[in-house]
């Protein structure tokens, strides 16, 4: 049985740190320096932002509980078309990107 001081578990950050530390001890794996820096930066963010980051990491690691998104035939065609354009070196200009962002209020 693992005993954890209650003070340690007073925030999402502390809980995340504890889980990462315990996982490291159990599996004796080390993180890259960049991942350590990213986690350190995430500790300074709000709990909501930390949860957003955690969801992204879990999804990238393939351990999230979300089912895969099913693409429509039109979406698959759009992706293939975009990949072909990228392979030819055809990318949007900065002006085109700004225009799209402006259209959507970004």
Would you give an account of this structure?
Helix content is 62%, strand content 0%. It is mainly α and 106 residues long. It has two domains: 7-61, no CATH class; 73-103, no CATH class. The longest helix has 16 residues, at 12-27. The radius of gyration is 20 Å and the shape is extended. The model is unreliable at 1-10 (pLDDT under 50).
Q: Kindly state the percentage of residues in helix.
A: 55-70%
Helix and strand content put the structural class at: mainly alpha
SS summary, helix count: 5
In total, the number of strands is: 0
Report Rg: 20 Å
H and E order:
HHHHH
Instruction: Extract low-pLDDT stretches.
Output: 1-10
Overall pLDDT metric: 79
Shape: extended
Provide the domain count: 2
Q: Strand fraction band?
A: under 5%
Largest sheet: none
Straight-line distance between termini: 50 Å
Could you give the topology of this structure?
Layout: H1 12-27, H2 33-42, H3 47-61, H4 73-87, H5 94-103
Q: Tags for this entry?
A:
106 residues; mainly alpha; 2 domains; 5 helices; extended; disordered N terminus
């Amino acid at each position: 049985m693992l005993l954890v001081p209650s003070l340690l578990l007073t925030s999402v950050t502390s809980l995340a740190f504890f889980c990462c530390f315990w996982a490291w001890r159990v599996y004796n794996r080390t993180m890259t320096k960049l991942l350590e820096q990213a986690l350190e930066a995430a500790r300074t963010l709000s709990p909501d932002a930390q949860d957003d980051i955690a969801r992204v990491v879990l999804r990238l690691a393939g351990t999230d509980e979300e089912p895969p998104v099913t693409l429509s035939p039109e979406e698959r065609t759009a992706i293939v078309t975009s990949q072909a354009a990228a392979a030819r070196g055809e990318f949007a200009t900065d002006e085109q990107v700004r225009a799209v962002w402006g259209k959507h209020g970004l």
